[in-house]
Amino acid sequence: MASKLQQLQSKACQASQFVAKHGTTYYKQLLEQNKQYIQEPPTIEKCNLLAKQLLYTRLASIPGRYESFWKEVDFVKQLWRNRQDLKVEDVGIGALFGLECFAWFCAGEIVGRGFTFTGYYV
Predict the structure, then answer these.
(1) Angstrom distance (rounded) from CA 6 to CA 90
(2) Which positions carry the signal peptide feature in this UniProt record (predicted)?
(3) Cα 27 from Cα 38, distance rounded (Å)
(4) What residues contact residue 109 under an 8 Å CB cut-off, 6+ apart?
(5) Residue ranges per domain, the chain?
(6) Cβ(116)–Cβ(122) under 8 Å?
(7) Are 87 and 81 in contact (CB under 8 A)?
């Protein structure tokens, strides 16, 4: 156990030395590549302004999303009315989509329970 702890400390030391040596270069390169996204001057007031712009822009997009949602619902209703005209491929795609949604739901439940399958901590 002590040898594994010593190995872990050694790896952590190597990683911190690598970051100390190459971190600033990576940081400068990253900023240079993405300078078109940087707002000048970089102040707290500018950050607060951008946060408010993002919030209210998202709020302003709700009506458009609402309309798109109901268009999708109407499309599904139309498909259901004409279900005798559906092809097997379309039904298969819909079934796979439903199965995928269920799988993501199950995975989220497992993650939410702390990666336990029964819900109890052992």
Answers:
(1) 57
(2) none
(3) 14
(4) none
(5) 1-38, 39-70, 82-114
(6) yes
(7) no
CB-based contact 31:38 (threshold 8 Å): yes
Residues 104, 74: Cα–Cα separation, whole Å: 25
The residue-averaged pLDDT of 59-69 equals 96
What is this structure's pTM?
0.47
Spatial contact of 110 and 117, defined as CB atoms under 8 Å apart = yes
* pLDDT tens by residue, 74-108: 998 998 899 888 889 988 998 999 999 999 998 88
Mean pLDDT to the nearest integer, 40-53 = 92
As a dihedral over the C-alpha atoms of residue 6, residue 9, residue 14, residue 20, rounded to 10 degrees, the angle is -160
**How would you class 42 by CB atoms within 10 Å of its CB: exposed for 0-12, middle for 13-18, buried for 19 or more?**
exposed
